[in-house]
Amino acid sequence: MISIPLPLFLTLCAALMGLLILTRPWLMRGAKTFFVALVGVIMVETILVALRFAYQIEGVLVLQRLLPFWIGPLLYLGFVTLSDHSDVLARTVLKHLGVALALSTITAAIPQTRIALDLMIGLSYAAYAILLMRLWRGGPDRLSHLAVAHVPKMRRLMLLGIMLLAITCVMDAVIAVDFARNQGENVSRLLSFGSLALITLFAGAVFWVAKTPAHSAHPGAPQTDDSAAILRQAEEFLTQSQLFTDPDLSLTRLARRLGVTDRALSSAVNRQTGTNVSQFINGFRVRQAAQLLRDTKDPVGIIGEASGFLTRSNFYTEFQRVYGQSPGAYRKG
């Protein structure tokens, strides 16, 4: 038996990750709260695993079986806070943490039903791995509350989070089978392999988080209150990302993708164009619609929807404002 159990190295890795999370200024406070809570749960869980399996302290068993129910929800909620679903965050938090609390309560009340508990834990890991994968598959624009420069990094971390849940799910399943068939004879060896895999995973996560200096400004964001620079940045981003085709695009969402404040973006657009942000975004939509009117034979209503307009009336009003004629007249001319 090694003198320092591998799960304790996981505790140290988690502690380092927590410190890095706390010192990243570009990460929203809500996301920090969930991620740091997750790190705390992982630290306590790995310590309890070490006490139980390396030092045979069985008194920690009940608490050790409660904590896994919180890992998936906290990881998922951390990313949801950064996503376009953050407008329903309070309801989402109540739902997912409520389920974790209910499962923890059941586990504390009937700890002797080991097979059922192992099954519930495994299903929890699997369910949240699927939820995170669905969020990841939504593309970079789903992380709408992050400055665009940090989105690739967080998407890589999301994949690492999915791998964390998958590896832990497999570890729990294999250990449960070993207890059922061999009375846990191979648990120490299995924990060593699993811990090495998780340590490698945490090392990758620490690397990606640490790549951004703790006190750096948002990469790509204007370093001064230069309204012309902010406007150029907004125009380039919208042109490249085509995010204006999303009818739910808002001032706040665009500002956060650019790494500037709502007020700075609004002021820049107003000073440089004489319009508000809504009209500025609609300008991109109208130009997209005009190109589709010229290049395709699609119905006018379909073109309005494809360009990001929620309603036909808004499409016609904005098109008339920019081109001085209706979409139908523009196509005929």
TrEMBL record:
Record-annotated HTH araC/xylS-type domain positions: 228-333
UniProt keyword annotations, A-Z: DNA-binding, Membrane, Transcription, Transcription regulation, Transmembrane, Transmembrane helix
PROSITE patterns tied to this protein: HTH_ARAC_FAMILY_1, HTH_ARAC_FAMILY_2
InterPro entries: Homeodomain-like_sf (IPR009057), HTH_AraC (IPR018060), HTH_AraC-typ_CS (IPR018062)
Domain of life: Bacteria
Transmembrane segments: 6-22, 34-55, 61-81, 93-110, 116-136, 157-177, 189-210
Protein name (record): HTH araC/xylS-type domain-containing protein
